[in-house]
UniProtKB/TrEMBL annotation:
Motif (GXGXXG): 11-16
Location of the motif DGA/G: 199-201
Record-given protein name: Patatin-like phospholipase
Organism: Pseudoduganella lurida
Motif position, GXSXG: 38-42
């Protein structure tokens, strides 16, 4: 019997192979996504899940990653091929060659290959069917500077507009997925309905709000939410060279910040306790049913969050689409997920719906090293 879950998938380029491994393990262990959101490479993974032909998620993810993994050159050491994708990735992007117009460039690459890859490998009729799976991706609007979620579903009492956040129900196409990963200056903005969009990770690399807007009341109470964290940054030594400086700066930019957004000194658990107290106090009160109250109650779903974190991002790992790099991160993701499920199985029932974090570096030195 399948176990329902929700997924939040971060951006991180080739680091997304870790997500590929995590989701593969979860599905093979009987977990079935009910709702999934992603950003950048997480959007590509999420689309491969929701748009999996014949509903075969494991095969769909494998086919997508085989398409965007570079073939191994036999004349070069496998461990030394991480930077080859900087020259292009035939099913993902191609480098521009119109050098005569270089002064007017707004990007170094063209993402047309990924539009074709998505259209060829995925079932977009299924992806747009919320009865099959609720699905959303985020992008950053160059018009507002804020985050926009494009989704096939909007839950009752969802927050469709708040500050810089927008939620739009749309007929999703490959362009919506590519928009979520249009990271400048490498990739150009993607235009949708007259508005240009860049990578959603520029606004938030952990699209929690996007997922919450897909949940109905019964989901908020009990649906497990798996977050895959590609940029853990705690407990690391200071950088000692410019390459490490750049790697750490990227990790800090895209790290998972949702832990710090709620509860202050009390942390997320304290925040959830207060939300539960507010729910009880508001029963029968006129504030109950207001948009602000509805959103606070939607945040109660965070009690069901489980975070599976990778090892710290390696130097250049975000563009390492070599067979060696992708296979290593895939293996690390599977190991991290299986380790998490083992711990979950041995938890007391009363604690299984509380926030749990499993870090790849706690699994084994060998597996963590391969993901790095």
């Amino acid at each position: 019997m399948s176990k329902p879950m929700a997924l939040i998938l971060q951006g991180g380029g080739a680091l997304g192979a870790f997500e590929y491994g995590v989701v593969t393990a979860l599905v093979e262990e009987g977990w079935q996504p009910k709702a999934v959101t992603g950003v950048s490479i997480g959007a590509i993974n999420a689309a491969s899940i929701a748009g999996a032909k014949d509903g075969d998620i494991v095969t769909s993810l494998r086919t997508m990653w085989e398409a965007i993994t570079l073939p191994q050159l036999p004349i070069w050491p496998a461990t030394q091929q991480a930077d080859f994708s900087l020259l292009g990735n035939p099913n993902f992007w191609r480098s521009r060659t119109d050098y005569w117009d270089a002064l007017n460039w707004t990007s170094y690459c063209d993402t047309a290959p990924m539009l074709n890859t998505l259209a060829t490998l995925l079932d977009f009729d299924q992806l747009n069917n919320p009865d099959h799976m609720r699905f959303g991706v985020t992008a950053t609007s160059l018009n507002t500077g804020g985050q926009v979620t494009f989704s096939n579903y909007t839950a009752s009492n969802a927050q469709k507009r708040s500050g810089q956040l927008r939620a739009k129900r749309a007929q999703l196409t490959p362009s919506h997925i590519v928009a979520s990963g249009s990271l400048p200056p490498g990739f150009p903005a993607t235009t949708i309905d007259g508005t240009d969009y860049w990578d959603g990770g520029l606004f938030s690399n952990t699209p929690v709000d996007s997922l919450l807007n897909l949940l109905e009341p019964e989901d908020i109470e009990t649906l497990p939410i798996f977050v895959v964290d590609l940029f853990p940054t705690d407990g690391q030594a200071s950088p000692v060279n410019l390459q490490e400086v750049n790697t750490r700066a990227i990790a800090l930019q895209y790290q998972n910040r949702f832990w710090d957004q709620y509860g202050g000194d009390a942390g997320l658990d304290g925040f959830l306790t207060v939300l539960e107290q507010i729910r009880k106090l508001a029963a029968g009160n006129e504030v109950e049913g207001s948009p602000a109250f509805d959103w606070l109650m939607r945040l109660r779903a965070l009690k069901n969050v489980h975070v599976i974190a990778s090892a710290p991002a390696p130097a250049g790992g975000d563009h390492d689409f070599s067979q060696y790099g992708v296979r290593g991160r895939f293996a690390a993701g599977k190991a991290a997920a299986l380790n998490y499920l083992s711990r979950l199985e041995h938890q007391a029932p009363a604690t299984q719906n509380s926030v749990t974090r499993v870090d790849a570096k706690h699994i084994s030195r060998s597996v963590a090293a391969r993901s790095a």
